[in-house]
Amino acid sequence: MDYGLRTVDKFDGSGNEIVYSVDEVDVEGYAKEIVGKDTDGALVIKNTKNSVEQPANDKISISVKKVWKENNGTEIADKSALPEITVKLVKKVGTGALTEVSGKVIKLNKGNDWKGTFADLPKKEGEDAVTYSVKEDSISGYTSDIKSVADGYIITNTKNPPSTPLKPPVTPPGNTACYTTGNTVDTTYYTNNANYTNYTEYTKISKK
Fold first, then answer.
1. Per-residue buried b or exposed e for 16-31, using 16+ beta carbons within 10 Å of the residue's own CB
2. Is the pLDDT of residue 175 over 80?
3. Are 29 and 49 in contact (CB under 8 A)?
4. Exposure string (b/e) for 50-70, b if CB count within 10 Å is 16 or more?
5. Of the given ranges (145-154, 156-165, 180-189), which has the lowest mean pLDDT?
6. What's residue 130's pLDDT?
7. Which long-range contacts link 107-111 to residues 24+ away (Cβ below 8 Å)?
8. Which of 25, 84, 106, 133 has the fewest CB atoms in 10 Å of its CB?
9. Model confidence, pTM
């Protein structure tokens, strides 16, 4: 780009020759170099674009979703009484050890539909890439499984089965009926309801 020439005095009032120089205001993203004069005597300033550019996106977000399941693998339908859980963010910088990220904690509960997000997480620390994962505070009576998905993690809590089967009552409530297995009439009472899943329900017969 040529801005032409301007006529200036060669000598000052005392007859001394004046030496002139020029400079350029810095331009963001470019390096400046004053090369010299061209064949016409015009001063040449060269601008070179910097080779190192900022990445377009240097932040990421990690989503977290909670799933609750019965011990038979089906999803728990009524979640109103389920406890709030605490999820913490964990990171690994380069080949370093896993460490908790200070201040990065989310609470999952019925109010937020058991979903949350860790936002604005740097992809790098210095020249090292950062890898993120999550962990939750343990919940009594449940086994936790954390699975990585495309945009974050799914934490599944499955209810633990009872450690020992509960003993059913020896007679029907109120002793109003008898139960049988095969041809043998027996007043021993078994049930297959939720409290006694390891027992078989006897067939109810007429009272003897």
1. eeeeeeeeeeeeeeee
2. no
3. yes
4. eeeeeeeeeeeebbbbbebbe
5. 180-189
6. 94
7. 108/64, 108/66, 108/84, 109/84, 109/85, 110/79, 110/80, 110/82
8. 25
9. 0.53
